[in-house]
Design goal:
Strand order of the largest sheet: 1-2-3-4-5-6-7
Largest sheet: 7 strands, mixed
Order of helices and strands: HHEEEEHEHEHEEEEEHEHHH
Distance between the termini: 53 Å
Number of strands: 12
CATH architecture of the largest domain: 4-Layer Sandwich
Radius of gyration: 20 Å
Structural class: alpha/beta
Oligomer: single chain
Bound molecules: zinc ion
CATH topology of the largest domain: Metallo-beta-lactamase, Chain A
CATH class of the largest domain: Alpha Beta
CATH superfamily of the largest domain: Ribonuclease Z/Hydroxyacylglutathione hydrolase-like
Number of helices: 9
Shape: elongated
Length: about 290
């Protein structure tokens, strides 16, 4: 808790000193920084928030199934909450992918739980790219397991945002936990770092092909299947718009000014990340040889 309280204090102080509350640091970001909580999604499915990151928590007859640990401090907090609210052991942890902001700190749950991840995530963890629990079960394409009356369907999304990203669908609630490939009503992260855009679109299409009713994302609000489609359409429209301008010979600095994606003016992080989205898209289109 201390670190998050400090972070919140720091953000507030920075906002006061700079006099830019609502500009450089939006109110919503201030409210979210350092925030932890558990909210019910549907039935026995819950969502755990740690500032800007979310993970899933499912109560079964036999115990608790968790997803991404986020970090060791978050796990310490969640561990105490789980003991208080459910008084059941954590039996399984499912890792969405190996990126440090989602997968770190899994070892803080201790020994004895089944840790499930994609086989490539296990390789990244073994290579020391993130400090977390060692997966005890891995899979390549699809895997499902049932525990305490709940079924978990795990699907590999393919290469795109990382090469080890999976989606988790919980039944009977039909809630999907999807991280990073789809962040509802928020423009994609910065300049699409290390991302093949066509493959990212492919990952979102895999999500669209899953059977679920509620989307519980790793970032952003609880939403539904339509939000996955909206995200794919955003990426496709951005790609088409930037490609047309590049083909017309326009410099990237001018494209930044003309590709405004007005349709998405209400989406989160648009003011801070749209320009980066455009630059990242232009860079990828050029590097991928799409501009003739
Ligand atoms: Zn990631």
């Amino acid at each position: 808790m201390r670190k998050s309280t400090f972070l919140l204090g720091f953000l507030m102080l920075a906002a006061i000193v700079l006099g830019v509350v609502g500009a450089a640091i939006p109110d919503a970001a201030l409210a979210q920084a350092g925030k932890r909580g558990i909210e019910n999604v549907k039935g026995d499915v819950y969502r755990f928030q740690n500032s800007f990151h979310y993970a899933m928590l499912v109560e079964t007859a036999d115990g608790i199934v968790v997803t991404d640990p986020i970090n060791a401090e978050a796990v310490a907090w969640l561990k105490a909450e789980v003991a208080k609210r459910f008084n059941k052991p954590v039996t399984h942890m499912v890792l969405s992918h190996h990126h440090g902001d989602h997968a770190s700190g899994g070892e803080a749950w201790g020994d004895g739980l089944t840790v499930i991840a994609h086989e490539k995530a296990a390789e990244h963890i073994a290579a020391g790219k993130v400090t977390t629990a060692t997966p005890t079960k891995t899979f390549a394409d699809k895997m499902s397991f049932t525990t305490g009356g709940k079924t978990f369907e795990l699907t590999y999304l393919g290469v795109g945002h990382s090469d080890d990203l999976i989606a988790v669908v919980v039944r009977p609630e039909n809630v999907a936990f999807v991280v990073d490939a789809v962040s509802p009503r928020r423009v994609p992260y910065r300049d699409f770092p290390n991302t093949d855009i066509d493959k990212l679109i492919g990952q979102i299409k895999v999500v669209e092909g899953l059977d679920f009713e509620i989307l519980a994302p790793g970032h952003g609000p609880i939403s539904g299947p339509q939000d996955a489609t909206d995200m794919r359409v955003y990426v496709e429209e951005l790609k088409a718009a930037v490609l047309a301008e590049l083909k017309a010979g326009k410099p990237v600095d001018d494209i930044v000014a003309s590709v405004t994606m007005e349709k998405y003016k209400d989406w989160g992080s648009r003011d801070s990340w749209l320009e980066l989205n455009v630059r990242g898209m232009a860079r990828w289109l050029q590097e991928a040889g799409k501009v003739e």
